[in-house]
Amino acid sequence: MAVSQAQLKAFHAVAVHGNFTRAAEALFLSQPAVSDQVRKLEERFGILLFHRNKRAVQLTDLGERLLAITQRLFAAEGEAEELLSTSRALETGSLTLAVDSPVHLLGHIARFCERFPGIRVSLVTGNSDECLRRLQEYKADFALLGRVVEDDSLITQVLSSDPLVAFVAHSHPWATRESIVLADLEDMPMVLRERGSMTRQILEEEMRRAGIAIRPAIEVEGREATFEMVAAGLGVGLVSAAEVGASANVHVLPIRDCLQRMTETLVCLREQGSRRIIETFFAIVRSNGG
């Protein structure tokens, strides 16, 4: 019993976008047409792929398993389309990078865009765990992770290795200091990244090593939010030294006894490493000291 490609596309779009309306917009179809395709797929095999309510849909266990297959299927379809349509010159196509902080890739992206202006480059942000998940779900071509990576399923390239630094508002009592040690952070109100952030993981590991307790003041998602909260005087933040930039809103403090460093690693799936666009971007990174 052959499976309809149109029905699989409709299912995949609904599963990825979370509802029928957004799926229809992505497929340039009407919402009833997408609903009909999914209904026919379910009726044909006597199955249920979604739990439906008025606002959203939720995948059933079977739906989750089918999504894992359609992710691979349409990633392969995308590879075939790229092979047939972009040609050796990389005149058209797209490149998606999932990054925790774009600062480590901006120069490489600029060089790539200069050489291949027809390629549409997209950046999506998240912590290291989220970026890796996007890569594994075929929602990104590359992921930039804030750690050393040892995984045979990935091709890796280390971009940088930098120490962690603390930063505080200019109104903070530490604003006149030149540096701190980990013990200074004990019971100090902290502005922490969400769990899954390598900055937070390294801090927690270093504090455990030193036998020091962390006192969270506020938990935020994203580096920019951390800077905003710290600049407003809500606590002490931490970041890789490479990512602090020239911010005039905070005072930066090296941590003298912090042993671990933030290692930024660019990765792609090994199974996709032969795609020309991926080979080319990697070559640009490596030729410029990445």
From TrEMBL:
Alphabetically ordered keywords of this record: DNA-binding, Transcription, Transcription regulation
Pfam families: HTH_1, LysR_substrate
Name of the protein in question: LysR substrate-binding domain-containing protein
Top-level taxon of origin: Bacteria
Record keyword Oxidoreductase present: no
NCBIfam families in alphabetical order: phn_lysR
Lineage: Bacteria, Pseudomonadati, Pseudomonadota, Gammaproteobacteria, Pseudomonadales
Keyword DNA-binding assigned: yes
Domain HTH lysR-type: 3-60
Family: Belongs to the LysR transcriptional regulatory family.
